[in-house]
């Protein structure tokens, strides 16, 4: 798999981000869900919309110190991806 997303993947990312954050419904960025891929790898098709606060900066965020709490409350990467797919109607 290429490290760079394709044009089609980038278009899908725009649709995903337009859904708003899955947690707070704020303006979203793309979170790469890391299920079904090795550590440190990204599958550009497995993404979910999270705002910067819920993704990285908040005390309970996907990549912050409260990541265990985040997963307990909102699910793991597989759950985030499945919610995204459902919202997109895919």
Explained architecture:
The chain has 90 residues and is mainly alpha-helical. It contains 4 helices and 2 strands; from the N terminus they run H-E-E-H-H-H. It has a two-stranded antiparallel sheet with strand order 1-2. The longest helix is centred in the last third of the chain and has 12 residues, at 77-88. The protein is globular. The protein starts with 6 loop residues before the first helix and ends with a helix. The mean pLDDT is 91.
* H/I helix tally: 4
Strand residue content: 5-15%
As residue ranges, the low-confidence spans are none
What do the pLDDT scores average to?
A: 91
SSE class: mainly alpha
Q: Largest sheet at a glance?
A: 2 strands, antiparallel
What is the approximate shape? globular
**Strand sequence of the main sheet, in spatial order?**
1-2
Roughly how many Å apart are the termini?
Answer: 22 Å
CA-based gyration radius: 12 Å
Number of strands: 2
- The helix/strand series, from N terminus to C terminus, equals HEEHHH
Helicity range:
40-55%
